[in-house]
Amino acid sequence: MNSEWTSTRGRQIPVSNARRRAALRCLERFMYPVELRTLATHTVAARNDLSIDAVEADATERMAIRLHHLDIPVLSTAGLLAYDAESRLVVYTATNVTDQYAGRSGSESRQLSTL
Fold first, then answer.
1. What is the domain range of residue 21?
2. Could you tell me which of 44, 45, 34 has the C-alpha nearest to residue 90?
3. Is residue 10 part of a domain?
4. CATH code at 33?
């Protein structure tokens, strides 16, 4: 089994990566699709215990690139989020087991209307 995946109740969930966990925790706070750079800024802030205003532009850019190329594709394939690469909008879509595992308490699945 790939070490990037964690098995939960027979289902593999790609949240063993700290950056992915931080991004999911940030993303779950938004009740609407959020722009990739906004998610990146929140993820940098959460991982470094900073305020949103203290995150530097280059740190946001580096995180956005990592999320876009490395983390979002894996999390999207796992059904934890939906991402529209053209508009760069991302939305948390996990429900049930993944909600509990990612620290989210019961809610309805959200989708991007542009997908």
1. 17-101
2. 34
3. no
4. 1.10.10
> In sequence order, what DSSP letters do the residues of 54-95 get, joined into one string?
G--HHHHHHHHHHIIIIIHHHHHHTTSEEEETTTTEEEE---
User: Could you tell me the pTM of the whole model?
Assistant: 0.73
pLDDT string in tens for the chain (115-residue length): 344 444 444 455 567 789 999 999 999 999 899 999 999 999 999 999 999 999 999 999 999 999 999 999 999 998 899 999 999 999 999 864 444 444 544 445 555 554 4
Torsion angle, alpha carbons of 24, 25, 26, 27, to 10:
40
Comparing C-alpha atoms, which of 73, 84, 85 is closest to residue 114?
Answer: 84
User: What separation in angstroms does the CA of 52 have from each of 8, 15, 46?
Assistant: 32, 23, 9
Residue 82 lies in a domain: yes
